[in-house]
Design goal:
By secondary structure, this protein is mostly helical. About 70% of the residues lie in helices and about 0% in strands. The chain has one domain: UbiA prenyltransferase (Tetracycline Repressor, domain 2, Orthogonal Bundle), CATH 1.10.357.140.
């Protein structure tokens, strides 16, 4: 059992890794964020939505692709987060929420982290190669976004926009994996996801705004400040409009729009109720986006049938 001081600030106190993982493996699992799976879900959802959206009418999403995207999200998020931690190791040691991460706390070296990152990347490549040739090309292209992301917060107050471009790449990959092309519904899904990410990651960034201001890291939380709430409504409204356009372009039925309205209600609740000066509440609202993912996934499947 982990001591409370060993648990990274934004991980749940009863997470599986800190409770049950072998001590020697814990730092590597934490580099891959297995103690904080919410980010894996947020990376996974655009891919699952796209696989469901591209499925033939009155058909369930391809189960094999669902499994591949699920596994791929875990290993590729792990590789991306390990790279991010290597690049940000000096910043992380100066931020209260991140100073317990494996590299700044001295649990693993940079060399060990690089080896772990490469191993995860190779597993991800094996998973990607199970898809069609066009999807492999689309998936490989995402590495450019991943490589640039850790450096964006050094030069702009909008790193959350770059994260949106990166985390929603699965919308393009999922459609490509099913159809071998990229079409209008996938593009709408991708743009909508960008604004969804702008919303939820701005909420997340409010946890670190004081430390970020001190060490010179930029974020939308710092840029928008006291005006964040109306911007959240704008981000989420644009996202819902984009998801509705994706459903329209894919010819979904009325049931999809009912589900989309429910999803809109969940996002409105986040924007209206989040307490931006309370890190615990920001984290709770951030976590609630898993529910939004399930709502939209169910809406897409329902829209295929009815």
């Amino acid at each position: 059992m982990a001591r409370p001081s060993d648990i990274i600030a934004d991980a749940r106190q009863q997470n599986v890794i800190d409770r049950f993982a072998p001590a020697s493996a814990k730092p590597y699992f934490k580099l891959a964020r297995l103690d904080r799976p919410i980010g894996t879900w947020l990376l996974l959802w655009p891919g699952l939505w796209a696989v469901a959206l591209a499925a033939p009418t009155a058909s369930l999403p391809d189960f094999q692709l669902i499994v591949l995207f699920f596994l791929g999200a875990f290993v590729m998020r792990g590789a991306g987060c390990t790279f991010n931690d290597i690049v940000d190791r000096d910043f992380d040691g100066r931020v209260e929420r991140t100073r317990a991460r494996p590299i700044p706390s001295g649990q693993v070296t940079v060399t060990q982290s690089l080896i772990w990152m490469v191993a995860l990347g190779l597993i991800g490549l094996v998973i990607l190669l199970q898809m069609n040739r066009f999807a492999v090309t689309v998936g490989a292209a995402s590495l450019v976004l991943v490589a640039i992301y850790p450096f964006v917060k050094r030069v702009t107050y909008w790193p959350q926009a770059w994260l949106g471009l990166t985390f929603n790449w699965g919308a393009l990959l999922g459609w490509a994996a099913v159809t071998g092309t990229i079409a209008e519904p996938a593009l709408w899904l991708y743009v909508a996801g960008l604004f969804w990410t702008l919303g939820y990651d701005t909420i997340y960034a409010h946890q670190d705004k004081e430390d970020d201001a001190l060490i010179g890291v930029k974020s939308t939380a710092l840029r928008l400040g006291a005006q964040t709430r109306p911007w959240l409504f704008g981000f989420f409204a644009t996202a819902i409009a984009g998801y509705a356009m994706a459903g329209h372009a894919a010819g979904l039925g009325t049931a999809f729009y009912v589900g989309c309205a429910l999803g809109a209600g969940q996002l409105v609740w986040q924007a209206a109720r989040v307490r931006l000066d309370q890190p615990e509440d920001c984290l709770a609202k951030f976590h609630s986006n898993t529910l939004f993912g399930w709502i939209l996934f169910a809406a897409i499947i329902a829209g295929k049938y009815w």
